[in-house]
Design brief:
six-stranded mixed β-sheet; seven-stranded mixed β-sheet; Xnuc_lig_assoc; DNA ligase-associated DEXH box helicase; Rossmann fold; RNA endonuclease activity; Metallo-beta-lactamase, Chain A; globular; 8 helices
């Protein structure tokens, strides 16, 4: 007999766990919310009770002023959220603190992934493959064209361009939560131990990562640095700062962008990027399809991205699937 999953609903503002009167990543304030990770299209302030990993709660406190009503839950810790439903937070491999949420009720197991990736990342624990009956997956890069190269190759390209242009700096646009810290950690792993200079908007999250036990090495503010120090340096900034007035004080910067969207030439042209770096914190097409096959759910729900192609992939393999229509989700500068 096929599972019914009547106790979980996909509503426009998010995933609702009916017996527990609880939401996952809701787009507006609710009484009780389980939060998968700290990005703004999943995490918001204003909930009466926020349940998340300790790192995600720290991120939300820094970004949204979260204070009261926060309940930290460690990875693999099972909690009861009401109505006979239990929840377990499992590593998602997306950013620091990110979690899949395993829900169990009435003999059924449901996983809500939030955002995730399968490639190694020194700044967060790896994705935990967990069998379930219903798998609710993101599909940000849910098209076969999206195949992310190994990050070591992209970091090698960055360092090669820097070495070939010793009088210029390389200015890397990267999302302030997750992407920037991953790029810095991978630079360190590749042997770059010189200072990395930061736009002011990156400093809070980098400091928080270090407080959470993720070493990032010698980080310095770009503002106030001598021009001679910035020649040949690597500077990290938010994507909006790549071509604005702030960047003009740097010594002839080579503009780079770290994003899965750098696979798309039109996006590269729109950004005016000289050095596109295909570095993503989301699963690519192969990772999405491999994960569904490994988890092997009775049914898959697809959200947050290019649902149609992944839905068709499931159908061609006689896998039950449906696309969801949730509001409030947006493209990150992945």
């Amino acid at each position: 007999m096929a599972a019914c999953f009547t106790w979980i609903k996909a509503e426009p503002i998010g995933i609702r766990i009916v017996p527990a009167d609880t939401w996952i990543d809701p787009a507006r304030p609710t009484n009780r919310a389980l939060i998968t990770h700290g990005h703004a299209d999943h995490a918001r302030g204003g909930h009466s009770q926020t349940i998340a990993t300790p790192a995600t709660i720290a991120i939300m406190a820094a970004r949204y002023g979260l204070a009261e009503g926060a309940v930290p839950v460690e990875y693999h810790e099972q909690i009861t959220i009401g109505g006979g439903v239990t929840a377990t937070f499992l590593p998602a491999g997306h950013v620091l603190g990110s979690a899949q949420i395993l829900l169990e009720h009435a003999g059924e197991r449901i996983i809500v992934t939030g955002d995730y990736k399968r490639s190694p990342d020194p700044t967060c624990p790896p994705f935990a493959v967990t069998p379930c009956d219903l798998f609710i997956t993101e599909a940000t890069f849910g098209l076969p064209v999206f195949c992310h190269p190994p990050i070591a190759e992209e970091i090698g390209r960055l360092l090669a361009v820097r070495a070939a242009n010793p009088e210029r700096c390389v200015l890397v646009g990267a999302y302030a939560l997750g992407k920037a810290q991953r790029v810095i950690a991978e630079l360190r792993a590749a042997g770059w131990h010189a200072p990395v200079y930061l736009h002011g908007a990156m400093e809070t999250m980098c400091r928080l990562y270090e407080e959470q036990g993720v070493p990032l090495g010698d980080l310095r503010p770009a503002v106030g640095a001598a021009k001679a120090d910035l020649s040949g340096a690597i500077v990290i900034c938010p994507p909006f700062a790549l071509n604005d007035r702030w960047s003009r004080r740097l010594p002839d910067p080579i503009t780079a962008m770290a994003s899965g969207w750098m696979r798309v030439r039109q996006r590269v042209r729109q950004r005016g990027v000289e050095l596109p770096l295909i570095i993503s914190d989301h699963a690519d097409w192969h990772e999405l399809t491999t994960t569904i096959a490994q988890v092997n759910p009775a049914e898959t729900w697809i959200t947050h991205g290019r649902e149609e192609a992944l839905l068709r992939w499931c159908e061609l393999r006689q896998r039950r699937a449906r696309a969801l229509a949730l509001t409030g989700y947006e493209d990150e500068d992945d």
